[in-house]
Amino acid sequence: MKITIKDVRLAFPVLFEPKIGDNGKAQFSAAFIFEPGSAVHNQLLKDIEEVGAAKWGAKWATLKKEMKAGDNLLIHDGNSKASLAGYEDNLFFNAYNVVRPTVVDRDTSPLVAADGKPYSGCYVVAIVDIWAQDNKFGKKINAELQGVQFLKDGDAFAGGGQAAEASDFETIAEGAAAEDLI
């Protein structure tokens, strides 16, 4: 089920170059943080319910209890990562894809890593495909990362790089020697 999730906080974005994931495959990924009881939370609960019922039918009610107990229902408690910036007292979900997601700015123009956004801590719109897993690795509700749109700035989480502004530098006179700058 392809859905658009608006105004979530981005964490651990791997959007431009894939990294080797826990499964041993190169993949793109991101975590999305949101508040309990928010519109995003309510939307995800509804979508999880729909995906689970479509996949497992009458067994869904029982399987949902098992998956919830095993933390396999997509939404996770941010307090499980309370030491990480932005997670405490919030909820989050992770999304992955072996295909590079579309990454765009507010005006839908494409973004590249050199643009410096989106970054960990900013707010984004995410497009994900929520799907039900039922294989040798277990039963879960997962999200496939399909796209990210930069929405607005937020306080960057630790570890996020920031570029210097041109105004941070002083003008250097033509012909100045390096020792003149000390």
If strands are numbered along the chain, what order do they take across the biggest sheet?
3-4-2-1-6-7-5
Q: How many helices in DSSP terms?
A: 2
Order of helices and strands: EEHHEEEEE
Provide the helix percentage.
10-25%
Main beta sheet:
7 strands, mixed
Q: Which class do the helix and strand fractions yield?
A: alpha+beta
Low-confidence stretches: none
Tell me the span between the first and last alpha carbons. Answer: 60 Å
Short description:
This protein is an alpha+beta fold and 182 residues long. The chain has helices at residues 39-56, 60-69; strands spanning 2-20, 26-34, 76-77, 91-97, 102-104, 123-135, 138-152.
Structure description:
It is built from 2 helices and 7 strands. Helices cover 15% and strands 37% of the residues. The longest helix has 18 residues, at 39-56. It starts with a strand and ends in a 30-residue tail after the last strand. The chain is an alpha+beta fold and 182 residues long. The radius of gyration is 20 Å and the shape is elongated. A 7-stranded mixed beta sheet has the order 3-4-2-1-6-7-5. The model has no long low-confidence stretch (mean pLDDT 92). Strand 6 and strand 7 (138-152) form a beta hairpin.
